[in-house]
Write a structure and sequence with these properties.
172 residues; Protein-Tyrosine Phosphatase, Chain A; two-stranded antiparallel ribbon; 7 strands; 41% helix; 18% strand; globular
Length: 172
Amino acid sequence: MAEGIAWVEPPGLAGAIGMLPLPGLVIASRGERFIDGALQEEVLDTLAARQTALLVILLDDGECDPDEIEDLRHAAEARSITLLSAPIADFSAPDPRLDWPALIEHLAGELRQGGRIAFCCLAGYGRSGMMAARLLIATSSTPEAAIMAVRTARPGAIESEEQVAYLLSCTP
């Protein structure tokens, strides 16, 4: 059931940006979290079928077991998907002390060459939506247009005022 992936296409570019929950993540009714291996495989197969080159994990330290991330890395690489880790605290904007401009420019370059990039966080809404919008801004969308495009593709995306403020402060 990999229908949890929402895609947005930057205007004038052949690439695409995906937003999704952590592949395979299941949150049980009592709040317990675990990775369903079969679901993870299905999600990664869907990303590979869409020719996704990069999967950027936005989970902050402690949100997921490091062994699960390492397993995800191996499973992604088996499908020629490179896994990048770029932690952001839940409901927050990127830490300005980290080199986000270099990462965004790298990802924007991939998009300009027709690449497909996906962002994942726990639910695939807040941080994933924010970074998808940030990447749209880096490829010439206005912040307002980027927010609207992301929220059209994934209603409810970009969850906090801090995330909106961050995007509104960005320039193409």
